[in-house]
Amino acid sequence: MPTADTKINHRVAGASYYVNEQQRARVKQLSRSWMWRLELPTWALIGVIYTGWFACVIYWQQLGAVLGSVLLILLSTWYMSLQHELIHGHPTRWRWVNQLLGTLPLAIWYPYGLYRDSHIQHHRDQDLTHPEKDPECYYYTAKQWRHFPSLFKKIVRISNTFIGRLVVGPALDIIDTIRSASRAFITGDRPAIIMWLAHFGLLSLLLHWMAGYGISAIFTILVIGYPALSLTKVRSFFEHRAAENSAARSTLNEAAWPWRLLFLNLNYHLVHHDLPTLPWYGLRQIYLENRVQYQHRSEQFVVNGYTQWFETYAFTALEIEIHPFYDSENKTSISEQPHEGLGRADRQPDASQIAR
Question: In this protein, which residues make up the domain named Fatty acid desaturase (predicted)?
């Protein structure tokens, strides 16, 4: 595992933060086990997702449109979770092999390379929720918000409700993706153009193959692709919040096992940001072994399952519009000022860090 950077709030993307030396030793011990070294759970996951997805298409007529669609939606969502795991170096140490395993556009919308580059940038914890630096941020600068038309502001507020995020959120993502592709072709960004052409080519072949089994391209996009993307919004609805301490920006969602399996334990999101190279099957174990410390680190940004979000925010908007402390005029934020806390990430925590 890579060593941690000097400051708790300013780790480079991909660096690891251990709550204490015992946890570091525990992760090292687990990483030496035969199951972890061979990455068997991830290889099994790859086999199940690919076999299940292609079997659903091949046996579409036998399954019927309703059951077949439900299964393909779940498998496509699961595939997006798998792509995230591939980005973080699993199941092999070879980036090109992992990319091959995640390049097929089973989830339609994003080229693997676009997701990979954007997500690695998102893992710069000092920039989490930064409106102009975090590509997965839902906040805006005051300047951006002032220039938005009133209709777009209403759409943002709708998308900040749980139901709205599931219904409107995917459309906003798709629009941004189309803009990204258009910008690449307009500016002549050669690597990006190659990436998009490969994605479109593979997607065309996949949709043509599916049509041979009675699943039209329009049906695939609207009835399978869009709901699958919508389902990912359950996980990311309130995954991050603006907070001065970067550790308090990522949630800990104690979700039920079906959600944990579908999202590959990313509900323990602070653990993932602290230990980004930890495999998905280790996230829950490490969280439970250090539950009190992690809840303290998150400043109690803890959720009792996704039902809690639904009950609280089904039609009530999160207050995620203008970033509360980012100053777009001066290009600074509170998070860029010095913070007190652990001097080194591998130092033993004091009593206040261990107790709630």
Answer: 65-293
